[in-house]
Amino acid sequence: MSGWLQDHQGENPPDDLVFSNRRVIELSRIQFALCGECKPGDDLNPYKVTEPKACQEILSLINQQPQDPEEIAATAKLSPQEVGQHLKALVKASLVKQLDDRYRPSFAIFTVQDQERLKPLIDELSRSFARTVRENMNMVRSAYERCNFSDHGFTFDDLVYILVGAYTFDYGGLGALLRQDLLMSSKEMPGGRYVFIGLEGELLNLQANWQWGHNAVLGRSNFFGHGEVPSHQRGRNAFPDQAYRWHYLEGWSEEEVTKTMEEIGDVLVALYQHPLGIQGLAAQTGIKEERLQEHLNLLQEFEYIGAHGELFVSSCPVVGREAAERIQELVEQLQAKLIAEVVKPNWERTHDIYKGTAPAGNEIDIREAFNPIYHLIFEQASRLLMEQGTIPWLKRHADGARYAVWIEDREEVRDS
């Protein structure tokens, strides 16, 4: 099937539709986040399994120390049947591990004390990340110039967050740290490939203190949204979030979603090359004018395009083969500096601090736990760079969130 949503590491997709995201569901006791891909409608979706308040109470208890069902029921004041149902679901989703008659989490849940313990390290490393980028902005500007974005009307300010915050810190950083065996970007789980984490309490608000990267390959285009997510609704007024809503909330078939997104991708690629009127777009894309008008209305509403008289103009950068190669070179150069100058010199200290946390006590591999720690580091570094004026603040969209959008022309990238 050609219609699928790909995880951010670019691994081979499953046969059915998945939604790749880093997103948070803030509930009564624990905030959860996911890095990788899972199926939103599946019973094994970790957000769905951990949603009940009683389940979170159980996770908080066994995060402190392994307990058997009787101990859990007595402490949490839950019936043995309720405890048994939640434990069964958690074990089935591989979120809890059974040790004889006791249970403990099999994913990292950081207590408030853990977060306080880690905060000085995260603050220091984020400052070092920001300083390293500031000292090497000439590399970032050179990559921008070599990608020829200016030929299509996009300034350095339009692209710098995408180059640094998204490609270098996030996507490239996860891959570079994975290759150095310092981080686990995802792992095989019953409901997909992902790393799942939890933060207890309200010391850190993941909704506001996390950079959410959503991307999906549909047709020839890989659609990206990166930055904040709106606090008042599910997903952004952007792609692939809208594709998710069409399929999972409005009941569109995978074929309908794929066809629509293929056409939208073709429109965005065409307009990136030069402004066109509706007749020119119809001739170039082969899309009938009536359907094309629907796409153009949505793209204007979502701020992917603008109109100058009868011509439509792109507001969405497109990364093709040559640009992808130049960006990869930048990522490799900057990440080599970040790992050599910041991560590795602080790795022993990171390990020592981690030893005193609940996830370490539950034998969660530090490489898995470093996934959310690294996300917090680079999010804070990106924010510092914006506060200091090194990177412009992201555009605030009509849905209330600040984020960047762009697409990759996968036909070109695959041919490289």
Commentary on this structure:
The chain is α+β, with helices and mostly antiparallel strands and 416 residues long. 50% of the residues lie in helices and 16% in strands. Strands 1, 2, 3, 6, 7 and 8 form a 6-stranded mixed sheet that branches. Strand 9 (212-218) and strand 10 (221-227) form a beta hairpin. Helix 6 (137-146) packs across helix 7 (156-179). The radius of gyration is 22 Å and the shape is globular. The two termini are 23 Å apart.
Topology record:
Layout: E1 19-21, E2 24-26, E3 30-38, H1 46-49, H2 53-64, H3 69-76, H4 80-92, E4 96-99, E5 102-105, E6 108-110, H5 112-135, H6 137-146, H7 156-179, E7 188-189, E8 192-200, E9 212-218, E10 221-227, H8 241-249, H9 254-273, H10 278-285, H11 289-301, E11 305-308, E12 311-314, E13 318-319, H12 321-343, H13 347-354, H14 358-361, H15 366-387, E14 403-409, H16 410-415
Parallel strand pairs: 6-8, 13-14
Antiparallel strand pairs: 1-3, 2-3, 3-8, 4-5, 7-8, 9-10, 10-14, 11-12
Helix pairs in contact: 3-4, 5-12, 5-15, 6-7, 6-12, 7-12, 7-15, 9-11
Concise structural overview:
With 416 residues, the chain is α+β, with helices and mostly antiparallel strands. Helix content is 50%, strand content 16%. The protein has helices at 46-49, 53-64, 69-76, 80-92, 112-135, 137-146, 156-179, 241-249, 254-273, 278-285, 289-301, 321-343, 347-354, 358-361, 366-387, 410-415, and strands at residues 19-21, 24-26, 30-38, 96-99, 102-105, 108-110, 188-189, 192-200, 212-218, 221-227, 305-308, 311-314, 318-319, 403-409.
